[in-house]
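User: I'm putting together notes for a lab meeting next week and I want to include a structural view of one of the chains we've been expressing. I don't have a solved structure, so I'd like a prediction I can at least talk through. The sequence is below, exactly as it appears in our construct file.
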Amino acid sequence: MNKFDIEEQIAEPDVHSVDQNSDAYIDYRKLHYKNTMLDNRVLVFLTGFCIGMVFFYLSGGQNASGKSLLDREHLLLMQSFDINQTGFLMYTLGLRVRQLLFMVICALSSIGGLLAYSIMGWYGFEVGLMIFSLVYQYGVKGIFLTFSMFLPHGIFYCIVFLIVFRRYWSSNTKCCHNEETIKNRKLHQRMEAIKTILLVLFIFCIGILSEIYINPEIMRKMALFF
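Assistant: Thanks for the context. Below is the predicted structure for the 226-residue chain, given as structure tokens.
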């Protein structure tokens, strides 16, 4: 009897080990796929970028009003333009706060994921249109002029955007299981929400200050090359 039991144990495969090997293989495939494929956000941004490029060529290198973007007259004015810091601060603050509230509303809506990728594609469209417009006018210098328009405040606004829509970027199912366990701890969840809000406000304020006090100087220095 024991002899048959031993033979049955040898003949029957270990189901638990097979499941572990299968899970390990699936995790490996997911990791390999993640490392070899572009991120969905990058793909959406590049798609919008290419659409902006096509739109630029179809429009004949001009915007809707028939005027070029940042012509030499504007650049000459920027070289000696004196900015009213108070007025510029109030205007920029009101504009960026409305944009931040719009992103928060989109993130809390039932179609937040669709809106997140739509906004990402729209950003790509605007950047593509702007880069090709300035390159068409000024050559390679147009690329540097484009980057000077978004630095350094654009970096901070991009971080804020990624944090606000962070729940839609992860596709790992294990994160969902971890999220379910965290929901049972109300205090921990509230503390994490407060930390996120404070972090967003902190980075947002840095972006506002850099746009008011740093970016105009960068633009003024860049305008001297044209």
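A couple of points you could mention at the meeting. Residues 79 and 217 are 10 Å apart (CA to CA). The two ends are 94 Å apart (CA to CA).

User: Perfect, that's what I needed.
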